[in-house]
Automatic annotation (TrEMBL), chains A, B:
Pfam families: FUR (PF01475). Keywords: DNA-binding, Metal-binding, Repressor, Transcription, Transcription regulation, Zinc. GO terms for biological process: negative regulation of DNA-templated transcription; regulation of secondary metabolite biosynthetic process. This is Fur family transcriptional regulator, zinc uptake regulator. One of its GO terms (molecular function) is zinc ion binding. InterPro entries: FUR (IPR002481), Fur_C (IPR043135), WH-like_DNA-bd_sf (IPR036388), WH_DNA-bd_sf (IPR036390). PANTHER family: ZINC UPTAKE REGULATION PROTEIN (PTHR33202). The lineage of its organism: Bacteria, Pseudomonadati, Pseudomonadota, Alphaproteobacteria, Rhodobacterales.
Length: 181, 181
DNA sequence: AAGTGCAATGTTACAGGGTAACGTCATGCC
DNA sequence: GGCATGACGTTACCCTGTAACATTGCACTT
């Protein structure tokens, strides 16, 4: 499902709420690609053609894409790509903080703050698969005391909220039915 | 990897830290099964033979088991079970709050507070796959303001911390090497 | 220029996780 | 008996992910 009209911009493109609100998505996507390219240049990382293409595919919308969705898109370009091609590019983007894996969906999204070192939390719409990336250091921090108490060393925290986005709630209300697609 | 010696009980069996500490696991497992059985009786849920068996399998250790691990165990009983048999039993347990799915691992554990309505967070050892279930309402609550601000309706929050448990940290130190198995 | 090393990509083949769909069977109710 | 319901049995898939190895291209050495 495509995002809503990417014309007006009542919400700035970097805002977490952008995923579920009207915003200038062309600018949103272009910024993400440019910032990532710059970060790669600064850090000596090679943003190869395939990697850049996969990032562009993820940037096309705020919906999470499965690795095989990405693979299909690569094949539409005329490549005869096999699964490892998609997975390797996705791994590169995730490891370097330019994309995120959504565990709940086994899927991927472009990062909203590429290059920055951040502790993201995600709001996942179970109806349209769009995902908003929020900063929620408090959520992860809440676990530290308990981890320390039991001697557990935390390396990474996954925080994913599943629910229904404003658009899909509105759609459900119109049809009077459930919140499904 | 089996749990450590289930003899002494420096930690009470219901404690979140039990997953990574010496405790009376026989008692720990028996309690989980009994509480679940009682909750089913009270609520008119049918804890059938297969469901009870799957719960017992999950209760055998604090390590997360994949659906196919559970299936293999069912087959060892002499059943000729197919995947849906395991998935249906696991779904029953998860939906009714007697087990949890660990998204990060695509795997399952028995619930530490079966029947109670709770907002669990998990500490997952990436080395031995054991999982501690903690109560961390603060982690989920930290997302509410942002969700409200963007009109997102949260239905469920996944909080999973990945890291290394005390035992595996100790093992790594002994061998001077990395924290792998 | 030839040789060497490394990172990225191409390709095959498979393992692991999950479900739709349909048939069967037992239970309980009218 | 007739019927609805919920659980289980079975088949046949689809989606997700990776090990392993061949190849390419580029940078750096000699
Ligand atoms: Zn956007
Ligand atoms: Zn939505
Ligand atoms: Zn135990
Ligand atoms: Zn461990």
């Amino acid at each position: 499902m495509p995002d809503r009209a990417p014309v007006a911009a009542p919400v700035p493109a970097g805002d977490p709420a952008a995923a579920f609100a009207r915003h200038d998505h062309a600018r949103c996507a272009a910024t993400a690609r440019e910032v990532t390219a710059r970060a790669c240049a600064e850090r000596g990382l090679r943003l190869t053609e395939i990697r850049a293409r996969v990032l562009a595919i993820l940037c096309e919308s705020h919906a999470a894409l499965g690795a095989y969705d990405v693979l299909d898109r690569l094949r539409e370009d005329g490549r005869k790509a096999q699964p490892p091609v998609a997975y390797r590019a996705l791994d590169f983007l995730v490891v370097n903080g330019f994309a995120h894996r959504i565990e709940r969906l086994n899927a991927y999204i472009a990062c909203g703050h590429p290059g920055d070192d951040h502790a993201p939390a995600f709001m996942i719409c179970r109806s349209c698969r769009r995902v908003a990336e929020c900063a929620a250091p408090a959520a992860a921090a809440a676990l530290s005391p308990q981890a320390a108490a039991m001697g557990f060393e935390i390396e990474r925290v996954v925080v994913e909220a599943e629910g229904v986005c404003p658009d899909c709630r509105a759609s459900a209300r119109e049809t009077g039915g459930e919140t499904g697609a």
